[in-house]
Amino acid sequence: MTTIDEALELCVLAGALLLGSNAEIDRTESTIAKMAKAVGMKEAEVFATPTGFVVTLEDQNGNSKTQVRRITNTGNNLSVLDEVNGVSRSLAQGKVSATEARALLRAVSDKKPSHRGWIALNVGIASGSITYLLGGGLSDLGIVCLISMTAYLISAGLERVGRYRILSIATGAVWITAWVLISSQFIEGLSIETDIVGALMFYVPGITITNGIRDITSGNLISGAARLLDALLVALTLAFGVGLVLSLGTKVAIF
Amino acid sequence: MDYLIQLLLAGTTAIGFGQLYGVPRRLTFWVAVPSALGWLVIIVAKAIGASELVAFFASSTVIGISGELMARRFHAPASLFIIPGIFVLVPGANAYQAMLCFIQRDYEGGVIEAVITMLLATAIAMGLIVANAIIYLRRR
Q1: Could you say which of A110, A128, A156 is where a domain stops?
Q2: End-to-end CA distance of chain B, in Å?
Q3: A40 partner at 20 to 30 Å CA-CA among A65, A113, A174, B74?
Q4: Are strands A43-49 and A64-70 parallel, antiparallel or unpaired?
Q5: pLDDT value at residue A1
Q6: pLDDT of residue A255
Q7: Residue A70 phi, psi (nearest 5)
């Protein structure tokens, strides 16, 4: 029989992993409730927002416990979602015990993310591909591939030094726009607009926007509104960075 | 032939962004499917001359439904397929035009482009919501 303390630890661990990788509120709350029921708790009440959550569990004897957990560091790791989902499913099916589930969740949080060079390569491929889809040619594809790879490495480096997320996005936008303008001077037939849009595409906060919409439609209005506002801030930052370089470029009249 | 290349690149877009977002290894290549299907809808919509709004709505509905179905098939959260897939629809060009208009003090044009961007974003969001509702209805 699982004690309420062990159940609470398990639930908080799962919730922190999910919210720490930007999961939907609905998924977080239902996963925690499902896990609590699976280890024999009578009641489970969860209130989650993107920056923290509260769990209250009640066991069969009527004892209850509450824990608050603040989420400060959010990443975008979809594989965490997948693995926590798998653990909670096998727990509900009775394939693993509560202790084993806790060990599995610990292993998920200890896992290292992919190598940054590998991600940069993929960002380059994706940005190049989308530039072609937006109407660019093969030279656009190649240039954007190179520029967005370097921009990703710079942003990732800035984000690692300190948590300057917005600053790193602005820097990336400036870097990308400047290099697109410079290379358009040397390579014939580049489309400046398509290249900038394509190279910036990897800064678009896809998870935040998609999950913000999902949160609002599932009734988690506060979380959804906060996420969409965050996405809007990122979009405005990108526009600011691009606009800054474009107006400087035309003022200096080199371009 | 060009259409085939476009579908392929729609797939590599999703695979690349999937890796950026840490899609697990067993699904690396599968995330390409919803993206390619969504782009197929865009190609068809362009060919029959449908408006951008309709094309984006239909495409995001297809991405949503195929993502949810694949999620069922692979026992994984649907976000793993939908998030990398939706990138081909981001109305970046309109947002760029809006920004450009504002810089050049063409505020009227800027507002028009910004509203178009928001309408397209709404069409994408509605598509995902409709897809979610269809899947939910089928499940019950």
Answers
A1: A110
A2: 42
A3: B74
A4: unpaired
A5: 65
A6: 44
A7: -90, 135
Helix (H, G, I), strand (E, B) or coil at A13: helix
| Nearest in space to A196 (alpha carbons), one of A104, A134, A117 | A134
Q: Characterise A188 by phi-psi region: left (phi > 0), alpha (psi -120 to 50), beta (else).
A: beta
Q: Does B96 touch chain A (CB under 8 A)?
A: yes
Q: Rounded distance, CA B123 to CA B50, Å? A: 14
Residue-wise pLDDT for A107-150, tens only, equals: 888 877 778 889 999 999 999 999 999 988 899 999 999 999 99
- Name which of B9, B80, B96 is nearest A132 (Cβ-Cβ): B9
**Between A118, A129, A217, which is nearest B13 by CB?**
A129
Measure the CA–CA gap between A213 and B80, rounded to whole angstroms. Answer: 16
Determine contact, residues A217/B129, Cβ cutoff 8 Å: yes
Name which of A41, A33, A13 is nearest A103 in CA terms. A13
Contact residues for B70 (Cβ-Cβ < 8 A; gap 6+): B30, B33, B34, B78, B81
The helix (H) or strand (E) run that includes residue A66 is: strand A64-70
State if pTM tops 0.80.
yes
DSSP state at residue A112: P
**Interface predicted TM-score (ipTM):** 0.90
Q: Taking each helix axis from N to C terminus, what angle separates A221-252 and A165-186, rounded to the nearest 10 degrees?
A: 40
Q: Does A180 touch chain B (CB under 8 A)?
A: no
> Which of A78, A110, A142 corresponds to the end of one domain?
A110
Is the domain of A94 the same as that of A198?
no
| Closest approach of B24 to chain A, Cα-based (Å) | 5
- Report, as ranges of residue numbers, the positions in chain A whose pLDDT lies below 50: 253-255
For tokens 């037939």, the residue is A189
Range of the structural domain that residue A186 is part of: 116-252
Based on the domain organization, do A167 and A239 belong to the same domain? yes
AA letter at A85: N
**Which among B16, B24, B100 has CB closest to A126?**
B16
